[in-house]
Amino acid sequence: MKTLPGTGRARPLVVGGGIAVTAGLALTFMFSVARDAAPASGGTPPGGPPAASAPPSRPMTVEELADTAGCVKRSLQTDAAELRQGACQTGRENLTIVTFASEQGKRAWLDYAQMYGGTYLVGSRWVVVGPAAPLMALQGKAGGAIESPHHGMHG
Fold it and tell me: Is 112 in contact with 119 (CB distance < 8 Å)?
């Protein structure tokens, strides 16, 4: 392997006089490291503008959603590999919180559940079911989209 003079680093592979492949990979790595180095607290990354509020990089858990919703009473009803389901009470409102192992599992559950009506806050591998007001408040903190399908099955 040839190295660049005075650096001890591998010489970039040049394809047909074109762009150096190694340099492209290095830039990709540097951009991903810079992105990951940005403060998770929503602060200002070094030398950059303030970070925008972004959803978490991993799906929220039942417990995190319950905390974010301000649940005062809660219970875990199902703890299975494909989904976890909990119930919680935010003052006078009851919410059902469901997290999923996959987006496909979430969509299948949601498609079936929506046949019965209701209001759903749908996020990344999670769904919260309940009255519109607490779901809108939770949406402002956790993100997601409100879905309110029509009642009843169509045949």
Answer: no
Show the DSSP H helices in the chain as ranges: 21-37, 62-69, 103-113, 132-142
Q: Are 45 and 51 in contact (CB under 8 A)?
A: yes
| pLDDT tens-digit series, residues 26-35 | 333 333 333 3
Average model confidence (pLDDT) for the chain?
Answer: 73
Distance CA 101, CA 112 (A): 17
Question: In whole angstroms, what separates CA 128 from the centre of its chain?
Answer: 14
Q: Is 140 exposed, middle or buried (0-12, 13-18, 19+ CB in 10 A)?
A: exposed
Model pTM? 0.62
CATH architecture of the region 62-147: 2-Layer Sandwich (3.30)
| Residue 57 C-beta-side C-alpha neighbours within 13 Å | 7
Q: Are 84 and 74 spatial neighbours (Cβ–Cβ below 8 Å)?
A: no
Assigned token pair, 65? 């959603």
Residues of the chain with CATH 3.30.200: 62-147
